[in-house]
Amino acid sequence: MRRITWLGHATVLLEVGGARLLTDPVLRGLAGSATTAVVPRGSRRLLQRLAFDTVHELAAGERARIAAAEIEAVPAWHPTRRWPRRTDYDALGFLVERVWFAGDTDLDPAMEELRGRVDVALVPIWGWGPSLGPGHLDPASAARAVALVAPEVVVPIHWGTLLPLGTRWRHGEALSAPAHAFAAQVGRAAPSVRVATLAVGEALSL
């Protein structure tokens, strides 16, 4: 059985294959010393101050195993260099036992290469404020990504959690509108795909 719990923004707890996996965790201070991290190749040094027991560095197409769960790194399309002199790492998503975590990504026709390999898609549909920067999906482009991949179920993520301080009174609709727009767009672009919109802390068992 696979169990998916949305914890807010892009953080999802995926329980599969005897493993408990967190996507895009917001790490502060310490991580448990029995915890394994899976990161883009070359980025291990960014985790030096966190007490990870094991770090797997992957490039697209490479795999790691945690418990009985096989994790495959797949491409994502997103700028990764935020400052001019910083290292540019590969943007990645991950495929775990037919669950696709798209990561931060823009739309790309190459997503269709995942068709037939995905039962559940965890797809970002917005950002963390009232507008989107480059390399992100909005409800319409996220629905087109879903149509390319054709999962059985899609769970919208990366929405409804964060707004810049002091802007809720002006932009509070950004916390709910993207999910409604996404469901409507999927209904048109990929009507055979079930949209499972979760509240923060809500779980989906499959």
Global structural class: alpha/beta
Number of strands: 13
The chain-level mean pLDDT equals 88
Sequence stretches where pLDDT stays below 50 over 5 or more residues: none
Major sheet: arrangement of strands? 6-7-8-9-10-11-12
Helix content: 10-25%
Describe the sheet with the most strands. 7 strands, mixed
Q: Give the tally of structural domains.
A: 1
Helix count, DSSP H or I runs of 4 or more residues: 3
What is the string of helix and strand elements? EEEEEEEEEEHEHHEE
Overall morphology: globular
How would you sum up this structure, described in words?
This protein is of the alpha/beta class and 206 residues long. The protein has a single domain (3-205), classed as Metallo-beta-lactamase, Chain A, CATH 3.60.15.10. Helices cover 14% and strands 29% of the residues. It is built from three helices and 13 strands. The chain has helices at 139-149, 168-171, 177-189; strands spanning 3-8, 11-16, 19-22, 36-40, 54-58, 63-66, 69-75, 92-96, 99-101, 120-124, 153-157, 194-195, 203-205. Strands 6-7-8-9-10-11-12 form a seven-stranded mixed sheet, with helices on one face. A four-stranded antiparallel sheet has the order 3-2-1-13, with no helix packed on it. A hairpin with a 2-residue loop joins strand 6 and strand 7. Helix 1 (139-149) packs parallel to helix 3. The protein is globular, with a radius of gyration of 17 Å. The termini are close together. The model has no long low-confidence stretch (mean pLDDT 88).
